[in-house]
Amino acid sequence: MKITEIRLHQLLMKMKTPFTTSFGTQQDRFITIVEAIDDSGLSGFGECVSGEDPLYSEEFMDASIIAMKKYFAPLVVQNEIEHPDEVWELFKPFKRNNMAKAAIEGAVWDLHAKQKGMSLSEAIGGKKRQVEVGISLGLEDTDELLLERVQEKVDEGYKRIKVKIKPGRDIDMIRKIRERFGDIPLMADANSAYTLDDIETLKALDAFDLMMIEQPLAAGDLIDHAKLQKEISTPVCLDESIDSYESALGAIELGSCRIINVKVGRVGGLTQSIKIHDLAEKHDIPLWCGGMLEAGVGRLHNIAITTLSNFTLPGDTASSNRYWYEDIITPEVVAEDGIVDVNTSYGIGADVDFHKMNQYLKKTDVITE
Ligand code: OSB
Ligand code: MG
Predict the structure, then answer these.
(1) Minimal CA–CA distance to 38: which of 94, 87, 101, 81?
(2) What are the UniProt keywords, alphabetically (predicted)?
């Protein structure tokens, strides 16, 4: 394929409600949509999931935009690409910056699928035509408010409820959820808010039969998570610590987790996600797809990766209306009773609606060489 132009559409999207984790509160979402255009005028789309500030990981949006403009966009317009799998190799001399790499690679994947007349799911070897979705609920000021949120999402039929925890907002809060909602599929995400000094708290959570505890310890750590997993019965799921195929291999070999949350941006794109998928499947480590407060393009990429066979647990790929009054795609992503139908028509399966996107657009950078 010949890519003649990359456009970086920089958006500021207002979230319906703020989203609070152990590392901070998000109110507006600064998002970059990557558009890759080929010599016939066809466009593929990707989304950069970096946070506005380097709080979840070291990447942040201003830096990702520079990385895309300076390194990754020029590489895809300067080189003839036969297949999107080549993009990771093309980017390899430049270390890390996985979310920037993934955003450009994602646009190339979508373009490739469209050129071949396939859906993105088919292009990556996905077979599922429906995927189960859960929801991630941020910390609320009081447990009562959180219980109301949980009630809403249980009523909407989400297949799994994830709540954020941090020291001081854990055991009592989880106990109240269990007391009110009984045996619902429930998990907790700490976003690395604990250390092994908190082992008694983490052991106490075993009493609540959580599906898993996500990233309790430091981002990047594998050793302490392996020690922790030996001490608790709740499966450890790693998010921040799995930033490459190599770290997934390390986590599996060390026994640092029993479940992996795959985020396409965090691991550097779809090609790397597929490689981690195949590794995890071989080792009976179930996967699910995590979210990064995505707009529609990122959401559709997440749904596509979830159609691979070893994504056996509900992901964070909720409806477009989870965070947005109006998403940038048509049709929007809609979960009914916790199920999203995979649109297998063409590429990511929906159009970027420029009329809708333009209301959020701050700036578009164009890279042609
Ligand atoms: O840890 O999974 C996380 C959002 C931003 C950064 C990190 C995380 C999250 C979420 C929300 O949990 C997932 C979503 O609904 O998109
Ligand atoms: Mg997480």
Answers:
(1) 81
(2) Lyase, Magnesium, Menaquinone biosynthesis, Metal-binding
- Give me ligand 1 centre to Cα 367, in Å: 30
CATH number for the domain spanning 227: value is 3.20.20.120
Closest ligand to 322 CA?
A: 1
The answer to the question of whether 189 is labelled as a binding residue is yes
CA neighbor of 204 nearest in space, from 225, 234, 160, 162: 234
- Catalytic residue numbers read 164, 263
| 267 and 357 assigned to the same domain | no
The ligand with the least distance to the CA atom of 23 is 1
Domain limits for position 150: 122-350
Pocket of ligand 1 from Cβ distances under 6 Å: 56, 136, 189, 191, 239, 290-294, 316, 318
The pTM score is 0.97
Residues 345 and 358 in one domain: no
Q: Is 102 helix (H, G, I), strand (E, B) or coil?
A: helix
Model confidence at 343, pLDDT cuts 50, 70, 90, reads confident
Per-residue pLDDT tens for 257-288?
Answer: 999 999 999 999 999 999 999 999 999 999 99
Q: Provide the domain count of the chain.
A: 2
Tokens describing residue 42: 């066809």
